[in-house]
Amino acid sequence: MDEFCAFNHKILEAKWHEAAGKWHLLVESGGRTFVDVCDIFINAGGVLDNWKWPDISGIETFKGKLVHSADWDPKYDFTDKSVAVIGIGSSGIQILPHVARQAKTTTLFARSPTWITPSVGISEPGQDDPEVDEAMNYAQKELEKFQKDPEYLRGHRVKLQDGRIQGFKLFMQGSEAQKEALAMFAESMRQRLGNSEKGRRIAEQLIPKFPVGCRRLTPGQGFLEALLEDNVSMEWKNLDRITERGILTTDGRLIECDAIVCATGFDNSFRPRFPTIGRDGTELAKKWEESPEAYFGITVAQMPNYFMFIGPNSPIANGSLVQAIQITGIYIAKCIQKIQRQFIKSMSVRQQAQDDFNEHCRTFLADTVFSGNCSSWYKQGDIDGKVVAIYCGSSYHFIESLKEPRWEDYEFAYVGDVRPNRFAYLGNGITLGEAQGKSVGATQTLNFEEYWNLFNSPAING
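Given the sequence above, the corresponding structure tokens read:
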């Protein structure tokens, strides 16, 4: 793939040119800027890709080591240091045990309860599952068996995916699965925190009142156990500001630090990191200032020939994201095929179709735990905000929904002043494979199921 990739390039601006039906990209590389032009613009930058410092007064005055979880300094040695960790999201939960093992003292600053799951899934590994260690890493013999026996690996993956899909039921408010998860997770956390005075105090502060899944679920191996260590303490909702020497609490105490770890997350606004200007001068960042909205997380009204991976209301917490990304790629490929074959200059999702999709998402998500009374990046940190990050169904539901594009939801403009015959793409009556002298006889021996799969492939005429 290297020949198709340009590394060390940064897009400064993307602008749609209506007359030409093309995107003009202002690009910087090696100290120079230039304009590149494309018919199709795919933004695969993701959402949790732009880390940011927390908005805490005085952070710039700190004289010790300041590090962000997404900009880690592997050379820094925490041994015998006094360390503060700010944040109790997924990053903070994973970082704390490792820092605490090295540091002289570790202080965790948290402001929201959170659920710590028993293991990677919603249950402990069973007797017939592959062997794993305490950190849930596969044993070497299992890795070798995966490599030698693809069917064994596939069977394990199927079991994992079935479990994730079944687990989606717990995200429905009031469901039996949600009630069972509440009881199981709370009991698991209490058992791991123990019956000491410190353990009971942490349990009272940390175990949420909101539903399981309202915030991102994190296994957090070793996190609860680290909180019980004598060299670890937790400060709850009382960070006032940062000084040269450490962190000042709201009750006036100065907690001196050699290092501060900011596990405070990313810009989750979904806004692109560079100006993206579509039809009629519509700038996507401004369009999404109040609330990011898209069509199945892939296309946006007024943004012709523009596609995204993991846009607003994608299946981020709905099951396996890998398969969701794969179907997104296939969906985009089908759109590109249509553009190439049918003399299409531009395709843009209709505003009404986008609005209807978002209305359905809001209605569905109102009955899920994602709309619960917690502060979550799914709602851009607003407890009462709209859920903008989560799809309205399971990840498998997302895959099924995208198998066949709804072309009626799009507006098309065609090349030239006069639209050509709609069937002109049929060409000279033979496929590309036939023209290249490839064997196509196998297609004459397929059964119905194989034919069905063939005609659902994005590369049928390849």
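The CA atoms of residues 193 and 225 lie 7 Å apart. Try to locate this feature in the token string yourself.
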